[in-house]
């Protein structure tokens, strides 16, 4: 067995430790309903990680579709109820086709880098925070790589659940943003060319918003 084969088998075992969407999640404990600028979120606790609260697929901007397709992101303000229990789709991109280290099979058939679900309505973020809440924890905001061509928060490699369950020492936020032509169109007729970077800029502004800060006793995100 080669080193690469052994590594691939190891990663396949590691990746199967977490699955999307979460099933039989506990939504009963207090602190799983949080009011934010985006709406009233209902999070979950995965039974396999009872000390981690998940708030997943939170829209931090209006959908960048139709008239907003080639514009900077617009922050979402809403009082609607949001079931924040599953990570949102990746932004439009060409699916992986060639063999990659992420999968024994390679390409977009892998369960390790699941980018099959794509949508232009993709400007979402995900929050993992300890249960029970603790104050004063550092916040890690993670933007995936991919050469501004591909990527998404729905990769299991970007799931910090087991890490946070073990350490209880931080809060993690992962962010979807537009890439390729949707994020960096390079079209002479547009005023803004770096839409993906503006998406990235808006996400921390959501995290630092006054309304979110007012509920930091629940999310424990410190401004």
Task: For this entry, give a set of tags.
three-stranded mixed beta sheet, 7 strands, four-stranded mixed beta sheet, AB_hydrolase_fold, Carboxylesterase type B domain-containing protein, 223 residues, globular, 6 helices, Rossmann fold, alpha/beta
Provide a brief overview of the structure.
The chain has helices spanning 3-15, 161-167, 180-183, 195-207, 210-214, 216-219, and strands at residues 33-36, 39-42, 52-59, 81-83, 124-130, 139-143, 171-175. It is an alpha/beta fold and 223 residues long.
CATH architecture grouping = 3-Layer(aba) Sandwich
| Mean pLDDT level | 77
Taken as a percent bin, the fraction of beta residues is: 15-25%
Strand order, biggest sheet?
Answer: 3-5-7-6
Biggest β-sheet description: 4 strands, mixed
By DSSP (H or I, 4+ residues per run), the number of helices equals: 6
Rg calculated over all Cα atoms: 18 Å
Catalogue the unreliable spans: 1-27, 210-218
**Can you tell me the CATH topology?**
Rossmann fold
- Specify the structural class: alpha/beta
Q: Termini separation (Å)? A: 50 Å
Helix fraction by DSSP (H/I, runs of at least 4) = 10-25%
What's the CATH class, please?
Alpha Beta
Total domain count: 1
Q: What is the string of SSEs from the N terminus onward?
A: HEEEEEEHEHHHH
